[in-house]
């Protein structure tokens, strides 16, 4: 616990606004609420992701007490769409958790990973979220974890991305984090950031304390350091990889008319696909970039 | 120029090497600015009238620009983003200036 406290002290000193805790399942940690209490005490906001299975009325009350925000994963608006992706019974469990949390007035976002096939159902997904008083958050499918082998099959086509862009323009209330800013190259800017925050505004820390530029670059080759041996506040200003990510731009994007809206897209996606974060986004919707890439 | 502004609830900010970033809790939005002066202005927004803030920052970092116009322009931008809002004239008579000395290290 003392290491975690030191870490949170350092985050507060850095004026970190909030932390996102992912899993696995964060609620399985035996000191979860003790850690949350300390974060709240240090005025660092917390949001965590859960599959909802461990949420009962007591847990929901503990979450409310601390003002934590919760993201529950659902990849479809009904069991027949969600469960083949997330597992048998996951839809019912997630929805039960959302109900309990909303009864206690917890701010809940339903996190949905967008695939080519799910774009047509976004209206239904939004309706589901609204019906529970939850927000909808859409995330991009990155070629990592369970999606690795099927990524090229599941990932939206250019036409589907155009439809998604138009849908997002009509629904500014839907949160997309840093997932879809690269679609702004199709027209007007989408709400939110217009560049990838990895190494500039955000980074990731794994359970062992290792620091990486983002959750999609958690690789031995991109370790920045370890918070057990050096505070994040020092790593944040000293690490060479961070300063390169703040200043370098993909060469193939030079001259792109949309550069100010996209700045080369998601560094994590480029790293996962090309093994090089400083390449244009592999899903660049302008298309022109593909001729310039030599891997 | 005698108007006063207040920062919206749930706003946090910090300086970065090349500017600064503002976070709004209500919708989880982040706003990045290439200028530390914008963050500086947000910091000062509740501490005096536009005229007082302009006087303070022109001493510290504006060097020859029309400070009042500049301060207003940035405050309008911050208001458009829902990060600050202008107080009603009745609230404008609040306490006098409470402006700290500015470090002369804010860059545009
Ligand atoms: S060429 Fe680069 S900057 Fe332009 S849209 Fe594609 S990835 Fe974005």
Would you mind describing this structure in some detail?
The complex is a heterodimer of chains A (295) and B (108). Chain A is built from twelve helices and eight strands. Chain A is α/β, with parallel strands linked by helices. The radius of gyration of chain A is 19 Å and the shape is globular. In chain A, 40% of the residues are buried. The model of chain A has no long low-confidence stretch (mean pLDDT 90). With 108 residues, chain B is of the alpha+beta class. Helix content of chain B is 33%, strand content 21%. In chain B, the strands form two sheets. Chain B has a three-stranded antiparallel β-sheet with strand order 2-3-4, covered by helices on one side. A two-stranded antiparallel ribbon of chain B has the order 1-5. In chain B, strand 3 and strand 4 (29-33) form a beta hairpin. In chain B, helix 2 (50-62) crosses helix 3. The two termini of chain B are 22 Å apart. In chain B, 27% of the residues are buried. Chains A and B meet through loops of A and strand 2 and strand 4 of B. Iron/sulfur cluster (SF4) binds at residues 182, 185, 253, 256, 258-259, 262, 264-265, 280-281, 284, 286, 289 of chain A. Residues 182, 185, 253, 256, 258-259, 262, 264-265, 280-281, 284, 286, 289 of chain A line the site of iron/sulfur cluster (SF4).
Write the layout of secondary structure elements.
The complex is a heterodimer of chains A (295) and B (108).
Chain A: H1 2-13, E1 18-21, H2 32-41, E2 45-50, H3 57-66, E3 69-73, H4 79-86, H5 90-103, E4 108-114, H6 122-131, E5 135-140, H7 151-154, H8 158-170, E6 204-205, E7 210-212, E8 225-226, H9 232-238, H10 240-247, H11 259-262, H12 267-274
Parallel strand pairs in A: 1-2, 2-3, 3-4, 4-5
Antiparallel strand pairs in A: 6-7, 7-8
Chain B: E1 5-7, E2 11-16, E3 19-24, E4 29-33, H1 36-44, H2 50-62, H3 67-80, E5 84-86
Antiparallel strand pairs in B: 1-5, 2-3, 3-4
Helix pairs in contact in B: 2-3
Iron/sulfur cluster is lined by residues 182, 185, 253, 256, 258-259, 262, 264-265, 280-281, 284, 286, 289 of chain A.
């Amino acid at each position: 616990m003392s290491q975690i406290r030191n870490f949170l002290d350092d985050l507060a000193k850095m004026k970190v606004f909030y932390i996102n805790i992912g899993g696995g399942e964060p609620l399985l940690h035996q000191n979860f609420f003790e850690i949350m209490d300390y974060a709240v005490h240090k005025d660092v906001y917390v949001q965590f992701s859960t599959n909802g299975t461990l949420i009962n009325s007591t847990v929901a009350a503990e979450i409310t007490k601390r003002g934590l925000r919760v993201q529950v994963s659902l990849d479809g608006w009904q069991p027949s769409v969600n469960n083949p992706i997330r597992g048998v019974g996951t839809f019912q469990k997630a929805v039960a958790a959302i109900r309990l949390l909303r009864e206690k007035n917890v701010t809940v976002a339903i996190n949905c990973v967008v695939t080519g096939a799910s774009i047509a159902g976004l209206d239904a997904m939004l309706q589901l979220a609204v019906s529970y008083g939850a927000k909808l958050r859409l995330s991009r499918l990155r070629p990592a974890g369970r999606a690795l082998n099927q990524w090229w099959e599941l990932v939206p086509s250019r036409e589907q991305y155009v439809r998604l862009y138009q849908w997002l323009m009509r629904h500014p209330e839907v949160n997309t984090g840093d997932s879809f800013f690269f679609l702004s190259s199709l027209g007007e800017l989408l709400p939110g950031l217009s560049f990838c925050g990895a190494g500039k505004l955000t980074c990731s820390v794994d359970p062992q304390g290792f620091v990486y530029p983002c959750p999609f670059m958690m690789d031995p080759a991109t370790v920045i350091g370890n918070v057990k041996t050096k505070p994040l506040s020092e790593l944040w200003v000293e690490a060479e990889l961070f300063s390169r990510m703040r200043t370098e731009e993909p060469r193939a994007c030079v001259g792109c008319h949309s550069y100010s809206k996209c700045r080369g897209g998601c560094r994590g996606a480029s790293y996962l696909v090309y093994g090089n974060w400083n390449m244009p986004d592999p899903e660049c919707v302008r298309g022109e970039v593909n001729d310039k890439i030599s891997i | 120029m005698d108007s006063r502004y207040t920062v919206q609830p749930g706003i946090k900010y910090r300086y970065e090497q090349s500017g600064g970033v503002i976070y709004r809790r209500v919708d989880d939005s982040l706003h990045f600015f290439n200028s530390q002066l914008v963050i500086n202005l947000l910091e000062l927004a509740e501490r005096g009238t536009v005229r007082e803030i302009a006087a303070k920052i022109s001493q510290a970092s504006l060097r020859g620009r029309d400070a009042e116009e500049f301060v207003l322009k940035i405050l309008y931008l911050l208001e458009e983003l829902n990060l600050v809002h202008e107080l009603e004239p009745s609230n404008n008579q609040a306490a006098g200036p409470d402006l700290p000395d500015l470090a002369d290290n804010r860059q545009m």
